[in-house]
Amino acid sequence: MSSGIRRRSILSAAALGTAAGSLALSAPTAHASHGSAPSAAALPAEDGYGLWLRYPQVEDAGLLDRYRAALGTLVRQGGGPLQRSAADELARGLTGLLGTRVVPRTTAAAKGALVVGTPTSSALVRELVDPDGLEELGAEGYVIRAVRKHGRDHVVVAALADRGVLYGAFHLLRLVQTRQPVEHVDLTEFPAAPLRVADHWDNPDGSIERGYAGRSFFDWDELPRLDDRYTDYARALASLGINGAVINNVNTPADYLAEPFLTKLAALAGVLRRYGVTLYVTANFAAPMVLDGLATADPFDAEVRAWWPRKAAEIYDRIEDFGGFLVKANSEGRPGPLDYGRTHADGANLLADAVRPYGGIVMWRAFVHDTDAGWDRQAYADFTPLDGKFAANAVVQIKNGPIDFQVREPAHPLFGSLPRTNSMIELQVTQEYTGHATHLCYLVPQWKEVLDFDTLKAGEGSTVARVVTGRVHAYTHHGFAGVMNFGDDRNWTGSHLAAANTHGYGRLAWDPGLSARELADEWTRMTFGNDPHVVTTVSALLLDSWRTYEDYTSPLGTGYLTHPPDGSVTGHLDPSPTTTGQFHKSDRDGIGYDRTATTGNGYTKLYAPATQALYDSLDDCPEELLLFLHHVPYTHRLDNGRTVIQHIYDTHFSGAARVTEMSGRWDGLRRLVDRRRLAEVHHRFAQQLTSADQWRDTLVAYWFELSRVLDEDRSWLQAVVAPADTALLGGERNELPVQVVNATGSGLRTEITLDVPEGWQSGDATTYVDSREDETVKVAVVPPPAPALTTLHARLSSGSVPVLDASLRSLARTVVLPPAARCVHALDAGPASAPVLKDYTRLTPASVWAEGSAFGWVGNTPDATDTGLFDVVRRDYVRDSAPAVLRLKLPAGPCTAHLLTGDPNTLNRTLIVRVDGVEKARTPQLDGREFTWVEIPLGDGPAGREVDVELSAKQGQTWHLSACVVLADA
After folding, report:
1. CB neighbours (10 Å) of residue 8?
2. 874 and 727 Cβ atoms separated by less than 8 Å
3. Which of 194, 675, 687, 864 could cysteine-pair with 831, CB 3.0–4.6 Å?
């Protein structure tokens, strides 16, 4: 029996090719030729706010005349708010596209008209479209049909319900935006799945977990006062057929379920309702304890079982069409039913019972991550024994792959494994592991690959797409969730090109049969216009980008290679192979994670037998997943005859080179794209090129250092600074160890220097390194004595031999502190057990002020943490959510305190510093692995005076202090 998966590539032709179907795009009738295009200076500057809902006038005069004749008169004869939104959008869009004012009217003109509505609301619709034919389309389906009646030509957008009219209106505008003929249009559409949801990981303080487009546009300080952006947000969702929005993070506090948030949510729901978007909220499972002081959140506890129905009634009293809850439970420290010996089904059913009387649902995430070792199998182990035990209005939300939105991983084995449990797929539109908003990485081909994967769990044809659209099992609730990439940046998505992923997600959720090529073409036309050169160029950039990104980051399914999980904006962007070995399993002899049933962890047993056999076979395993499923020697040969290590070298170099080509192709549109967007995308490509070079050099250097296998086509030198995070004493000689690795075929004499800031002194060194060997030398560096943070770069030189200069491992991220002898106070903050910088004094929670002390805490004492990361100073800190006062005894004369704050792992909140009750400084929020020195003047005075330095944070946040240095002013 065929497995349905090919050996050489699991990327099906359908993922990129043109799919047959009612939405297939025909070639445009006419458009401006490339040669006659206006200059970019003549194009109006655009900021991207309109996304794909731009409505510039049709350029081709003949086509414009035909559109005006068919669509210049708009007729609507009734309907509710959704239908009014449809008519408003048509009036807005057609006025722009046709270059003439279009307003809704109630009667058709003698020459015909565009007619929108339902048989119930419009006598004209009843006359033009058979109402019986609309019944089978449901509440969201519609027809767009050219009808000639009584000698008049009409284009009709008709549906059984107003929501279908709204979706049909956006579809009609899409036809005009992409220059499709409408004279003989005959389209019938309905969504593949009932749940098409936008998930936002936004926090109440305005930050966004995995957000790369500014801060949240949900302004909780201003709500319930409404902003026009909420309406435009709802329009964007409705244009794609998205019918639900979860507006808060899966790692949520309980606050959203109580006032004042309920009043704010009700106002927001009112805006979304006008565009057919249902509001959902992520619920914190411990809400009964947090909000009302219950002793437990146990789903079998009587008080808890009474609490959730009361809370549901309170919510529905304010938001009558509230959709229900999304829940992340018992994963990464979140509370859940397993805390009480219950199951995920017990927890989901508790909430499902509460919202059932109102038609609400519960979306229960299957993302459960306790340990890295069991990550790939845990969801399957936790949920398959519960199949059939979830409530009818509960649906299990399953990520596309078993790990965490990686650039390459197989389809999740849970798909098709829960025949009696409602299931939906979770895709990540925001690019957490695929380059943030810095890298162009169009994810629709990846999503198509997953959706087209045949699970074989119910026989051939049991694709993931068919599972989540309810065509394999008798699900009552099923569909799509997409983790959104919207923020308050003017263009919504940070990068203009990142909006293609938003568009692609929504359109696939409506119709997973659409191809990536169709959607790239459609989005390009709607966003940048219909010039054939623009369409060809931008579509190609999109369609090639995922494979390009994969090539220079993680070929062959190498896996998780970015910095470990943290809540910061910068997390999961840069390569970090030395801290992620538990995922790629590289050693001196080979690479890859053995997940086979025969010699590995047994992961492949979670698939259908034919798929397991395919994945277990080293000969037949799809090469895109080779290192996700097998550990192989570096010399293992692929189908093309190249070794695995050579393929790694080749793809990293060729992938990074293609980014240069991509940038050049974009710049070739300078006469066809407005200057603002042209320049902003050019800037993003420049950032991507820098990052791609870093990925290439860092990973190529790492795997050569491990394998010592020479590249057959290239040679180079590479430098490694270890440790990369270093504390230096200012004004003194420090020695920085630099490892020189020779990846050439002969021995080389190499010179080592350091790039240092102005005012620093550094030496140089020379060493001889044999082929495929390494030598470590110490390079002297003397920084100025003042506290500082800077990055040093180790440079190598040996004639004309290339050097991997972009490798992040050739950098030293340093913190400079003055020697203790130069300081009034030299305090290294952290727990008593952590190491202390040379000659510095440990500042711990136990450092309490007493008579005769030089320093100490007055009143509240903070906690302390040692992360074990970074250098002796930045690895640890004292912290607290409450204010703490550090009293310092000072000598005569003016003094200045320098406070070091940050976190080597996760983001660091604002530090507020007051001296004797007066605020002196307030730091910005810092990303993970980011630090800053805060300079605090302590004033002048006599010897022995005491100064109180209060450290605090915003309400509900935690401040950090890693070091406190007090210097006498010169």
Report:
1. 11
2. yes
3. 864
